[in-house]
Write a structure and sequence with these properties.
The chain is α+β, with helices and mostly antiparallel strands and 235 residues long. It has one domain (17-232): Ribosomal Protein S5, domain 2 (2-Layer Sandwich). It is built from 4 helices and 11 strands; from the N terminus they run E-E-E-E-H-E-H-E-E-H-E-E-E-E-H. The strands form 3 sheets. It has a 5-stranded mixed sheet with strand order 1-2-3-5-4. Helix 1 crosses helix 2 (124-138) and helix 2 (124-138) packs parallel to helix 4. 43% of the residues are buried. The structure holds adenosine-5'-diphosphate.
Length: 235
């Protein structure tokens, strides 16, 4: 590592992780998960009756994740309500979690997962996946394995774990101009099968760098999975 990270972390170090379950009493299961100032709360309701009814699936439960950032989560107040970005991230999170769940045990039902980002400092979709996986487990939804998520960034030439906003906005000067020089890759891993269930890259990497990024992410997700397991035992 040739570059010093803005907050002095080691290249393979996440920000401080905090995790807690059952933070919302009226939900069937809920959790808080944070990477430093990126903080997510997830609440699970279900399995329950599907509305609208035409979305029912006789083979398995419908998993419906809804990610949003609160207006006060960022310095410039965010416009409330869904956006194209939040819809895309909601879809990504659903796909990241689905393979871990035994949805076929609850045909014709829906499991709703509401995720709110209460403070955002990049990698919020990763914090969201981790909170949602905890909330689903806390709700007693049968799972084959846990889902853990982390982002990998490339700052100039170096790969780092758990990108914050300063790193995401990292620039280098070229020809007197400041050019955005960061790439970030959001990943999620399934704890037992070790499969990748989320891979979203902004920027570019060589195939060799992508391979290295996934190795770094896997190691980091193994640590995150242990934190999640420990948190679930605190019920
Ligand atoms: P992620 O949070 O998963 O990294 P993005 O790359 O889309 O997703 O966003 C990076 C960061 O940019 C967010 O975590 C947040 O800090 C900031 N951001 C995203 N959308 C907005 C917005 N509408 N207003 C202000 N800041 C935003």
């Amino acid at each position: 590592m040739t570059l010093k990270r803005p907050d002095g972390r080691k290249f393979d170090e996440t920000r401080k992780i905090e995790a807690k379950i059952n933070v919302i009493k009226r939900a069937d299961g809920s959790a808080f998960f944070s990477f430093g100032k990126s903080k997510a709360i997830a609440a699970v309701y279900g399995p329950k009756q599907v509305i609208p009814k035409h979305k029912e699936n006789p083979q398995k439960a419908l998993l419906r994740c809804n990610y949003d950032m609160t207006p006060f989560s960022v310095t410039e107040r965010k416009r409330p309500g869904p956006s194209r970005r939040s819809k895309e991230i909601s879809h990504e999170i659903t796909k990241a979690l689905e393979p871990a769940l035994l949805l076929e045990q609850f045909p014709n039902t829906v499991i709703d997962v509401f995720i709110q980002i209460i403070e955002a400092d990049a990698s919020t979709r990763c914090a969201a996946v981790n909170a949602a996986a905890l909330a689903l487990a806390a709700a007693g939804i049968p799972m084959k394995e846990l889902v853990s998520s982390v982002s990998i960034g490339k700052l100039d030439k170096d790969l780092v774990v758990d990108v914050n906003k300063d790193e995401e906005d990292f620039t280098v000067s070229k020809g007197g101009k400041e050019i955005k020089a960061a790439t970030d890759v959001a990943t999620a891993f399934l704890s037992r099968s070790e499969k990748v269930s989320l891979l979203h890259m902004d920027g570019d990497l060589t195939s060799e760098e992508l391979k290295k990024a996934l190795e770094l992410a896997k190691k980091s997700c193994e640590k995150i999975s242990k934190v999640q397991e420990k948190t679930l035992k605190e019920i």
